[in-house]
């Protein structure tokens, strides 16, 4: 019973979708750190330049909170936009890998309308000779 459960868990955990999801979560977390750094280093100073800050305290706490909220919203939008672009590119790359449709493996005998192998020169059902 336990062995069967472990085998099912192993099959589930090693399935491609689960591994892909785990990689996506890890990359998403790392990318989130990059976006946070960009927001903190570039965007937040621009936003705080709008409101004068003295000794780390804003002259208006509401405006300071609003600036922080705008920073978080920009962080979310940048993260969502870049992840959307990455997923779109991955889907496009996946669609390039799709195979062209295969040539048919069978054909219809013009005499008896039976389905036969595409390479057949004589119908196995009615024994008619087929033209190539």
Q: How would you characterize the overall build of this protein?
A:
The structure is a single chain. With 132 residues, the protein is mainly alpha-helical. It folds into 2 domains: 2-96, Non-ribosomal Peptide Synthetase Peptidyl Carrier Protein, Chain A, CATH 1.10.1200; 102-132, no CATH class. It is 63% helix and 8% strand. The chain contains 3 helices and 4 strands. The chain has helices at residues 2-13, 16-50, 61-96, and strands at 53-54, 57-58, 106-108, 115-117. The strands form 2 sheets. It has a two-stranded antiparallel ribbon with strand order 1-2. A two-stranded antiparallel sheet has the order 3-4. A hairpin with a 2-residue loop joins β1 (53-54) and β2 (57-58). The longest helix has 36 residues, at 61-96. The mean pLDDT is 79.
Q: What's the count of strands?
A: 4
Which value, in Å, is the CA radius of gyration? Answer: 31 Å
CATH class identity of the largest domain = Mainly Alpha
Strand content: 5-15%
The arrangement of helices and strands along the chain is HHEEHEE
Q: Strand order, biggest sheet?
A: 1-2
What percentage of residues falls in helices of 4 or more residues? 55-70%
The CATH architecture of the largest domain can be given as: Orthogonal Bundle
Which fold does the CATH topology of the largest domain refer to? Non-ribosomal Peptide Synthetase Peptidyl Carrier Protein, Chain A
Question: What profile does the largest beta sheet have?
Answer: 2 strands, antiparallel
Estimate the mean pLDDT confidence.
Answer: 79
Which class of secondary structure composition applies to the elements? mainly alpha
Number of helices: 3
N-to-C CA distance: 59 Å
Question: Which descriptor suits the 3D outline?
Answer: elongated
Q: What are the low-pLDDT stretches, counting only 5+ consecutive residues below 50?
A: none
Number of domains: 2
